Amino acid sequence: MQLLHEQAQDLLTNDLSRTAVEIAALYKSRWQIELLFRWIKQHLDIRKFLSTNDNAVRLQVLAAMIAYLPLRIAARVNCITMLPLRLAELASQFLFTRRSIAAIYKPPPSSPSRPKPRNSTDQMEFCCR
What we know:
By secondary structure, this protein is mainly alpha-helical. It has helices at about 1-10, 20-45, 55-75, 85-95. α3 (about 55-75) packs across α4. The N and C termini lie far apart (about 85 Å).
């Protein structure tokens, strides 16, 4: 069984100077990096990097985090349970209007000039002919 484990280790890595525990720790740290990239893709909405330069990628990720964090803080303070990307979309729509963050996701008030329906919208209406 030990020989099979060692052969499987040889298939996964060609670094024979490290122990199995060290290699497992390396894979675990790599998995944490993969989780970070997944979080960045899901929450920061970076579709593509503007450059392949290391410094440019770092700056783009930092700028996205700087834009993300105030929105998350405002959402937590105002008890908004909306998805972060949806909140960012709404904030970008109302960027140049003065509106509180708590009122950003509420629908606009209905027009008073329109007559209100007699029936509830989820009830069927009978037609008499």
